Amino acid sequence: MTDNIGVLGKKAPQRTGVERVVNAPLPTVYGKFQAIGYMDHDRGDEQVALVYGEIGPDDVLIRLHSECLTGDAFGSQHCECGDQLDAALRAVVSEGAGVVVYLRGHEGRGIGLLGKLRAMALQAEGLDTVEANLALGLPVDARDYGVAARILEDLGVRSVRLMSNNPRKREALVDHGIEVAEQVPLLIPPCENNITYLRTKRERLDHHLPHLDAVVSSS
């Protein structure tokens, strides 16, 4: 038997917390990163941190990027996620050092791929992203950033310059013991297909998107 049965016939306790599993070089079109893989034993998710250059403990430029298959892989214009990931990877390379933590299990702000697609179908009928989630009986934002904080701690990072427009990410890191020295805007020019979505993020989810002012005033 190989199902964690101990010598006394009792099951060994299940692992908890975040475990570093592997560190592999990852050459990309942006530059050569180290892909450090983690297992989140509490949630069962596999996570990865892309580390560029030699990072120190303080004021590290980072991005906590929520998994978005449609935006990151398929180039969806429904959101700006793919462009934000691209901009973040370019930024840490330009900086000479930094970390992009790619957070799996965050699809659709934590409601999963099928939940997100159902919400998108409702948005096509006129609901905004908040209304769509609620109409499906799903939370507006179910993401948890505890695993990101544990990954940063494992990397020896104490304080960060956080590339994000979302104040909740900053609050979550601080709550989990990571100092946020600066919140760095990651502003992507809107397009016809995502302007309504971005306005909703600004008006109902408190995202800091000052670049929409010109679009709003001219619309």
From TrEMBL:
Residues the record lists as binding GTP: 63-67, 84, 107-109, 129, 164, 169
Required co-factors: Zn(2+)
Keywords: GTP-binding, Hydrolase, Metal-binding, Nucleotide-binding, Riboflavin biosynthesis, Zinc
Ranges in coiled-coil conformation: none
Free-text comment on the cofactor: Binds 1 zinc ion per subunit.
Domain spans labelled GTP cyclohydrolase II: 19-185
Residue stretches spanning the membrane: none
EC number: 3.5.4.25
Residues holding Zn(2+): 68, 79, 81
Catalytic function, reaction form: GTP + 4 H2O = 2,5-diamino-6-hydroxy-4-(5-phosphoribosylamino)-pyrimidine + formate + 2 phosphate + 3 H(+)
Involved pathway(s): Cofactor biosynthesis; riboflavin biosynthesis; 5-amino-6-(D-ribitylamino)uracil from GTP: step 1/4
One Pfam family, short name: GTP_cyclohydro2
Gene3D superfamilies: GTP cyclohydrolase II
Superkingdom of origin organism: Bacteria
Active site: residue positions: 141, 143
One MF annotation (Gene Ontology) recorded for this entry: GTP cyclohydrolase II activity
Group of enzyme by EC: hydrolase
Role, per record: Catalyzes the conversion of GTP to 2,5-diamino-6-ribosylamino-4(3H)-pyrimidinone 5'-phosphate (DARP), formate and pyrophosphate.
Family classification: Belongs to the GTP cyclohydrolase II family.
The protein's name in its UniProt record: GTP cyclohydrolase-2
Lineage, broadest ranks: Bacteria, Bacillati, Actinomycetota, Actinomycetes, Kitasatosporales
Gene assigned in the entry: ribA
